[in-house]
Design goal:
By secondary structure, the protein is α/β, with parallel strands linked by helices. The chain is built from 11 helices and 11 strands. The two termini are 38 Å apart.
């Protein structure tokens, strides 16, 4: 696996490869890799001649400084896992390489309502920070295919919107790869490393509650069902930010279901200090 720390070096090398007819797949990460990330590498390897991954803990997307400080860093193990997965290139930039002169405050992406609902509502500024870094990474790598995990459902929509806003829709194809789960249903996430043993045992309740919504979904008024799901999460010792049923293609919350519209259930909740998110398509 080739390792690049400088944007210009990576950009130059990839340009040479493209000139030779190679196709580029890209899976950006913040490290603390798990099998969910490795499934993105696997998907990219199937579709492209060169698979690039990046590890960069992006300070601009943390609305909570404590979350940033505690974000797990397991670089040596990550490099080993990427090698084993057959990743061809790792981009490992410093903060000043990505944001020379600091992350700009005057850069704004018009994400519309995606920025004010669900994750956008509870993590102010988060998606602007995601756009800042992803815009830079895509500028450097210029991949034909971009691989993202469905676990961050709203982020997938935001990045798709960013690609539209930048006019890159015809040159970058977004592939959303399914969420990988532990045997007990907990969605794989770097933040799971921060759970204590007792919290880890409790954590799959978030997935069970999404499953409860799926099992009990009926045409008509969804409000009583949503309320029960919220109560269930609280009874399982979660402090929910939200649990919502939304249109699967727009993420607009749905209170009255016509029985046909494709739906996704999304949830974000704290187990003490650790905030977990998950989602489940309700009628695929
Ligand atoms: O999902 C993540 O790990 C991050 O939000 C991303 C897309 C790598 C941007 O920092």
């Amino acid at each position: 696996m080739r390792l690049f720390k400088k944007s210009a070096d990576l950009h130059h090398w990839l340009k040479q490869q493209k000139a030779k007819g190679k196709t580029i797949g890209f899976a950006p990460t913040m490290g603390a890799l798990h099998n969910g990330h490795l499934s993105l590498i696997e998907a990219s390897k199937k579709d492209n001649s060169i698979t690039v991954s990046s590890i960069f803990v992006n300070p601009a997307q943390f609305n909570d400084p404590k979350d940033f400080e505690k974000y797990p860093i397991t670089l040596e193990k990550d490099i080993e896992l990427l090698e084993l997965a057959g990743c061809n290139v790792l981009f490992l930039p410093s903060v000043s390489e990505i944001y020379p002169g600091g992350a700009p405050d005057n850069e704004h992406y018009n994400l519309g309502y995606l920025e004010t609902i669900l994750e956008g509502k509870y993590r102010s500024g988060h998606f602007q920070g995601v756009c800042k870094v992803v815009k830079r990474l895509l500028d450097i790598v210029q991949p034909g295919n971009l691989y993202l995990g469905q676990k961050d459902y709203q982020q997938c929509m935001v990045i798709t919107k960013l690609i539209e806003l930048m006019g890159w829709k015809d040159s970058i194809k977004v592939s959303v790869c399914p969420t990988l789960r532990e045997a007990d249903g907990l969605a794989m996430s770097s933040r799971n490393m921060r759970l204590t043993k007792a919290e880890r045992e409790n954590a799959p309740a978030i997935y069970r509650t999404l499953g409860f919504l799926k099992t009990n979904l009926e045409k008509g008024n969804l409000l009583p069902l949503k309320r029960k799901a919220l109560e269930k999460l609280i009874a399982e010792r979660f402090k929910p930010d939200y649990i919502e049923i939304a249109d699967a293609s727009t993420l607009q919350p749905i209170d009255e279901w016509n029985g046909k519209q494709k739906l996704v259930a999304v949830a974000a909740a704290f187990l003490n200090e650790v905030r977990l998110i998950d989602n489940l398509l309700l009628n695929e």
